[in-house]
Amino acid sequence: MKVPWSRPDLQVAETRAVERVLRSGWLGMGKVTEAAETAIARYLGARHCVFVNNGTSALLAAYLAAGWGPGDEVLVPTYTFVATVSAMVALGCRPVLIDCDPGTMNVDPAEVERVAREHPDAKGLVVVDVAGLSCDLDPLERIAAEHHLTLVEDAAEAFGGTYRGRYLGARPHATIFSFHIAKQVTAVEGGAVVTDDRKLAEACRRLRSHGEGPQKYIHTSLGLNLRPTDLNSAIALAQVRRTGTFLRRHREYARQYQERLAPYCTFQTIPEYAGDPTWMVFQILAPDRRTRDRLEARLRRRGVQTRRAFPPMHQQPYLRQRFSFGKYPHADWVYDRVLSLPMGNGIRPEEIDYVIDRTVEFFRTG
Ligand SMILES: Cc1ncc(COP(=O)(O)O)c(C=O)c1O
After folding, report:
1. Chosen domain end from 216, 240, 264
2. Is there a single domain that holds both residue 253 and residue 316?
3. What is the CATH number of the domain that holds 270?
């Protein structure tokens, strides 16, 4: 058997939706994008959704709307995907890295508070909901307010995730999502800024489309082309309607992984406030790096595709060349042990069984 790390689930609904757009004669951003925005906002219980062409653009829009610019310090987790940091480096910001909690892999508010005190001139705080697991948002919002930091939540991996029973996104700060192919909801390429703040949403809308005011070709503020197409929005719209099914599938697979692999490895810690996470990816923590590498090689030989974690930002060559960083032992510890097993909307139950059987076999026989 060959099991990919992830597989989308695109069915007749998505094909028909794309066909309708193709035949409509309007392919760029239009009514279908508006419908996708309404559906996403409604699903999350949020007031505003600004759909863009990918998650990185959503970060760029949120950072520009925050007013961050050259020389501004922004606090950001080291354990994240590079886009979280690259979007701010592109604006000339200086990332101030925060170590992760080794259990949740998200930032620990106490550590954020410590770093915020050390950087009294910092302008912003970005938090990341790693692998679909919500951060502890209440204390993080309080810290951001107390230290005058604009908060942006990178929930690229967490569409459908909750914090204390409410979907991520339904808050005053900017929460960004990605709708890339391996995500819970895909547009193939797509992203969104979601917020309850009308002014922030309007700023992101202007940023998405060259800062154009009500008059055509009159640009009243800075903007870029971050627009999605109606083709991508049509796919996202069809997918949002099936989010419940997708998340149930992810949760069932995660439950099986946890149940059957618990004797051999550990997992991301799930605090109560995060409810049932979305499990965009399912990460196991091997006892040490060598075991992780051997398991990875064994699964590859058995036809199972896995992925390591993203190397933390302080290990990334281009960032090391530009900035000097401290030590982040928890992120290094996690990065050395993580192996991410197959998960995704289109992965089949028998494939999960196969992956579990092969993993158990590895741990039993060495
Ligand atoms: C944490 C995080 N932030 C940002 C992004 C960027 O999203 P996109 O690939 O849609 O640009 C990703 C992508 O996977 C991500 O995992």
Report:
1. 240
2. yes
3. 3.90.1150.10
Domain housing 317: 243-365
In sequence order, what are the beta bridge partners of 194?
A: 49, 175
Q: List average pLDDT for each run of 10 residues in the chain, which is 366 residues long.
A: 97 97 96 98 98 98 98 98 98 98 98 98 98 97 98 98 97 98 96 98 97 93 97 98 96 98 97 95 97 98 98 98 97 98 97 98 92
Could you tell me the strand order of the sheet in which 174-178 lies?
A: 48-52, 191-195, 174-178, 150-154, 124-128, 73-77, 94-98
Answer yes or no: do 40 and 156 share one domain.
yes
pLDDT at 214 (0 to 100)? 87
Ligand 1 binding residues, C-beta < 6 A: 54-56, 80-81, 83-84, 128, 154, 156-157, 178, 180, 191
Domains held by the chain: number: 2
From CA 81, how far away is CA 71, in angstroms rounded? 22
- In this structure, are 263 and 333 located in the same domain? yes
Of 298, 291, 305, 288, the C-alpha closest to 340 is 305
Ligand 1 pocket, mutate which of 133, 157, 186 (most atoms under 8 A from CB): 157
Q: Please tell me the distance between residue 25's alpha carbon and the centre of ligand 1 in angstroms.
A: 31
327 is catalytic: no
Q: Is residue 3 part of a domain?
A: no
pTM beyond 0.90: yes
**pLDDT tens-digit map of 105-148:** 999 999 999 999 999 999 999 999 999 999 999 999 999 999 99
